Amino acid sequence: MTGAEADLEPPVPVPDVVSEPFWTAAASGVLALARCSDCRQWDHPPQERCRRCGGRIAFEKVSGRGTVFSFIVNRRQFVPGHPAGEVIALVELEEQQGLRLAALVDADPAEVTIGRAVVAALAPVGHSEFKAPVFRLA
């Protein structure tokens, strides 16, 4: 990989009507996910209506605390701005069993294990105004 490839910016999110509240909250420093206003089920990724009961969704703040449900170590650079060696995890948040978020884990890959406690922080996406969750070992 050339130096120019390593310095490329990561892809910038393109919010739509459903995901825009997630990105707006993240830009203000809050991790917020979709939750049904009727049955109170958390739902990620968000949909226009609740998958469970069809109720309206609203975005609510989550704690950002969870555990590593599954993970991989990216051994090759596949996405610009994300070098080889990064840990990509599926994190189950403490708010609800099955509420999972795919994100990077900022840790030595040797220290990441399934079931390991993590906590989210919001990190800039390249040089854009967007922020995305990145988990750190708790």
Describe, in plain words, how this protein is organized in 3D.
This protein has 138 residues and is mainly beta. The chain folds into 2 domains: 14-61, no CATH class; 63-138, Beta Barrel (OB fold (Dihydrolipoamide Acetyltransferase, E2P)), CATH 2.40.50. The protein has 2 helices and 8 strands; from the N terminus they run H-H-E-E-E-E-E-E-E-E. The strands form 2 sheets. A 5-stranded mixed barrel has the order 4-5-6-8-7. Strand 5 and strand 6 (100-105) form a beta hairpin. The chain is globular. The mean pLDDT is 94.
Most strands sheet: 5 strands, mixed, barrel
Named CATH architecture of the largest domain: Beta Barrel
For this entry, what is the oligomeric state of its chains? single chain
Percentage of residues in helical conformation:
under 10%
Mean pLDDT: 94
The CATH topology name of the largest domain reads OB fold (Dihydrolipoamide Acetyltransferase, E2P)
Overall form: globular
Q: Radius of gyration, Cα only, in angstroms?
A: 16 Å
Helix/strand-derived category reads mainly beta
Order of helices and strands: HHEEEEEEEE
The share of residues in extended strands comes to 35-45%
What is the CATH first-level class name of the largest domain?
A: Mainly Beta
Poorly predicted runs = none
Quick take:
The protein has 138 residues and is mainly β. It contains two helices and eight strands.
Topology:
Blueprint: H1 3-6, H2 20-27, E1 32-36, E2 42-43, E3 57-61, E4 65-73, E5 87-93, E6 100-105, E7 117-124, E8 131-137
Parallel strand pairs: 6-8
Antiparallel strand pairs: 1-2, 1-3, 4-5, 4-7, 5-6, 7-8
